Target: Calcium and integrin-binding protein 1
Amino acid sequence: MGGSNSSSLKKEQIAEYELLTFLRPREIVKAHSLFKSLSILPPPTNSRDPSTKIPAEDVINKIPELRYNPFAPRICEVFSSSKDRKISFEDFLDMLSVFSERATLSVKTAYAFRIYDFNNDGVLCRRDLEEIVRLLVTTDEQRLRDEDMKRVTDNVLKEVDVDEDGFISFPEFDHAISKCPDFLLTFRMCIV
Model:
């Protein structure tokens, strides 16, 4: 494997990660090199210790695809397996895999739902929808008025909340996403 010498990953590890992700071996090696470069720890520590974690803020600040994404803190929160706002290499690999072009629609949809479920209650409630809209449209100079926010969230619920219970369940979200032909193209990041 050509570039594997620059990585401290063993061929067996690369093969295992390939089975568990949507990434190719060369992408896994590149991801490992990128992860090592994000760490402030000295190279012998950050490259050999699988428990090495990087603060989410460092990942966000050093990767342009995240730095300019309004959902970046939430993305890192969802992918942090230890839920401590720190990212391990395997967390990082999972994130890259889900946002890769080869990830399936069902995987991307499941993760999008988790990212948008800010309060982690298993449904998208009005507060989740308000947070999504706020992240998408609020700037330092401009923010949506309360009545406009209510109108937007009412329209989303009217369109997607099939059973009219005031929440968007995963099946309802999945159904709505299935009608969005560009979702596979937009829910991705080309980092490796």
About this structure: The longest strand covers residues 53-55. The domain at 10-98 is CATH 1.10.238.10 (Recoverin; domain 1).
